[in-house]
Here is the input.
Amino acid sequence: MDPLADALHRGLDTAFEKAGPRESTLRAWLRGEPLGHPLHAMLTDVPLGAWTSAMIFDAMSGRRGRQPWSSAARGAIGIGVGGAVLAAVTGLADWHAIENRDARRIGLVHGLINTLGLAAFTLSLVRRQQPGRGRRSAAVGYALAITAAQLGGALVYQQGIGVRSAGEETLQEPAA
Here is the structure.
C-alpha cells in the first residue's frame, strides 16, 4: 500500500502546488478550517443518507420497481453520487495531511473502498435507465459504503485523525 499511498501523496502535492499563491487557502477550505469543522465529515452525511434512503425506496418499490418508489430511489442515488464526489475531494485533502503511515494506509483503503462504492452506485444509475434494473449494483455499493464508513470511523476514533483536543483551542476571557 505504501508505494500507492506515496504516489498519490506526490500527485496531490503537485495538484496543490498548481494553485500557486492560493495553495494554503485552498487547502484550508477543503479541510473546513474556516468553518471550524472538518468539511469531509459534514459532506459524508449526504451520500450515506441519500443511499440509505435509496435502499429503503428500493425495498418499498417491490420486485417490479413500482413508481414512485423506484423514481425516488434513482433520485436519491443521484444525490448520493454528487455528494460522494464532493466528499471524496475533501477526503483527499484530509488524507494528504495525515503524517502517521498506519493511519495513511487505513485512509487509503477507506478511499479505495469508497471509490468502488461510488462506481457501483454510478453503475446502478446507468442500469436504472431500464425498469427494474440496477438494484443489485446499489446494494453492493451500499455494502461498500458502509464498510468504508467503518474505516473512516476507525481513523477518527481509534487513530485520532481530524480530532482537536479542547486544549488546542484558546478561549477568550470575557472583558471585565
Summary: The mean pLDDT is 90.
